[in-house]
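Supplementary Text 2. Reproducibility record for the structural model of the 587-residue chain.

All settings were left at their defaults, and a single model was retained for analysis rather than an ensemble. We include the record here because the model underlies the residue-level annotations in Supplementary Table 4.
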Amino acid sequence: MSATLVKHASATSCWTTRGLAIRRPVTSQKRVRISHDGRRIVIGFDCGFVEAMVINRVLERRIASLEGQRLPRGFRYAGTGRLDLEAFLVQPDPIGAMGELVSMVKAAGGEPEFARGFLEHFRQRLRRSLRQALPLRHAVWTTGLGAADTIIGTAKKTHVVDSTVWGGPVVKACQAVRFARQADGHYQYQVRDEAYVVSLDEITTRYSVEMRAELEQVMPASDVHVIQSPEDLVRLGRVNLIAYERLRLPVDRQASRRVTYAHRLRRRIGLLVADEGERLSNPSSDQSRALWQLSAKRRYIPTGSPIANYPRDIFGLIAFTGGDGTAAQPYGYRRGYLEANWLASVQHAERGIDRFRSDFVVLEWVSWEFAESLQDGAKREVPKIGNLPRYRQMLAPHVKRRLVCEPNVARYIRIEPPAVENVETTWDPAHLSLYLRTADEFAQWYREIRRDGRPNNWIAILARIRAVHFAANYPQHGVEGVGTLAQLTSKQRAVVERLEAIAGEGKQVILFAENPGVINLIASKLKAKGVETVAFHGGIPIAKRVADKDKRFVGIAIAGPARSSRVPGPCAGGAVVVMVGVSQRSH
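Retained model, structure tokens:
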């Protein structure tokens, strides 16, 4: 609990939870005012004697961490929880619990009265807390960027408009370009009085497209305000757009490096929507701190990967949206784990990080540095949820996953079900032998550790299971102690033959595989057969794989005053096979 400061206009005496110092004169005035500062309950006095009696009754006694315990920051008195509004909201009867605080003040000799608006604020906060405990139910449908008549994009880097023409026009980095939609779905733009036509795919690849284009589909353009300079901070619009990078930058670096765009926007934003919010998984990063500094009243995070790698990745997101140790989200990142017994005593309170780690994070060993923040420091972490039912219960009020098959979503979005055909192949004897040897070795190893009574080493078990998986799907990778397969498997041969046949029909096809090694292997076999391929996975540098994709799939129509030509694309260059590696390193 952070320090609570009580002041009165007629006296300079104060007390804090860091150390009590009552210097207020004795006036025999028993009035005690109960107000709030955010979630903190603030108690004001007119008489120093009444102040001492009430404070002693509310805070009770000094506490210290017990053996093996680490109290949350600022918890120095047993009654610290009685000065936290959220501790009342988590009670079965919040109004009755607040009445007990009033009775406690009366018993100490004070005459309590609530500040104007306190009870109204308390009831509003109670209703809001109850709403936060419910899952999201709204579905939104819009035509999106692909149907916008006009798109404004900012070039990500300097590039030549037509790479086939020597000395052709150049679009410089950060240059804004306006694209107009054509009847065929392509977009036209002009450079040096010459018109060029591009696909939507190239626009999103080479340009940063403003969100304004999508918002204009659902609201007037005058309502959208883009913040790109200090002058844009003077007057905000109904909807304000700002990039993550700009939000954390200083407004005037020469005047002050500490005054950032986030600092200037603090408490000026009512509703905050942070797109691609998975970057909040690390609350200590500069971008996360900038978003926290905005102190928006309501916060939403659209993201496709709220849990990128480990169960702890969601912690920063739910602390940002659901609250930092609140009745709706009790796991505090900077506070303690909120419990109903805080009104009795916080002697046994836990840090929110410690409780989250013990409930959901599975570790073989951990350093103190990692235990402090769940971000930095050495550890051996197992990608496993410690308590799956409780984890689901914890996420239910804060995370809503929308699926196309949901009735509320299917009303607006319809995707035809795919036609699935299962093709069975017969095991090659050499491949089957390698797979069975790998599986038998894992089974024998596991029986031995169980027979010896050794504890499960999850890291080793997962590594062994991964080896069996590799032996089945990518035996060319090799299995330590077993060997490797020097030929294609029957499934891989069937894939190569099928892709070659589709390419021979002049069609395009996309092959998905889990391991980039499989992609490279099949690509090499197809190229040997004369089938043009583009491998696309996390093992290839981003610039190279995007350039390869654009070269094969982004057809650029060029129409100038004195010429008309087209850069060869997939249709002009023949059938192309693209393979996308789906792995942890994929982008």
